[in-house]
Amino acid sequence: MSEAGEEGSEKVIRQRGLWYEELEPGVRYLHAPGRTITEADNVLFTTVTMNTQALHLDAAWSDEQPPFNARLVNSMFTLATLVGLSVTQMTQGTTVGNLGFSEIAFPKPMFHGDTLYAETVVTEKRESKSRPGEGIVTFVHTGRNQRGDVVATATRKALMRMRPEGDSE
Predict the structure, then answer these.
(1) I want to staple 18 with a disulfide (CB 3.0 to 4.6 A). Which of 8, 22, 110, 132 is the partner?
(2) Domains and CATH numbers, the chain
(3) Whole-angstrom Cα distance, residue 73 to residue 86?
(4) Is 13 within 8 Å of 156 (Cβ atoms)?
(5) CA dihedral 56, 60, 62, 63 (to 10 degrees)
(6) Are 79 and 125 contacting, i.e. CB atoms less than 8 angstroms apart?
(7) InterPro entries from the xrefs (predicted)?
(8) CB 150 within 8 A of CB 108
């Protein structure tokens, strides 16, 4: 069945990301909703990934450490959430996989209770030379907190599917 098709007499539309052909270089894609980061999110991610950094886990110790005097959200959680916020709009069901990340930066920290908002710009795309029906896309992700401060940036290359033959949507 195609992405949007007839199932009996009922029209069906399947939620998906964008095919390679639909991704437009230079366009800024805003992803909603944002994600408020909780203490539980941070502690669970930090312990599951075996990161024992006290800045993420020890409230009493972190409260005494300048310049923030508070526990910080694990930056790897921030990165994972930044990319995750883009999935529904950009790559849900239309990506083959990530090829790599570069230019990752965390200019300001995230704290428990902060909300992460994400946006993505496609900066480059080209058809794959070795994989027909697929293309390589460069995404630049930017994460901002609820005050509009940039808290994370990352460049990601992904292998994306082209629209399947016969798919008219």
Answers:
(1) 22
(2) 27-161 (3.10.129.10)
(3) 20
(4) no
(5) 130
(6) no
(7) HotDog_dom_sf, MaoC-like_dom, MCH/BMMD
(8) yes
Which 3 state secondary structure label does DSSP give 118? strand
Nearest to 114 by CA among 34, 13, 6: 34
Q: How far apart are CA 35 and CA 113, in angstroms?
A: 10
7-19 pLDDT per residue, tens? 567 888 777 999 9
Tokens of 20: 């390679």
- Write out the DSSP string of 14-75: ------GGG--BTPEEEEEEEEEPPHHHHHHHHHHTT---HHHH-HHHHHTSTTT-SPPPPH
Residue type, 83: V
Coil, strand or helix at 90: helix
Q: How confident is the model at residue 4 (pLDDT cuts 50, 70, 90)?
A: low
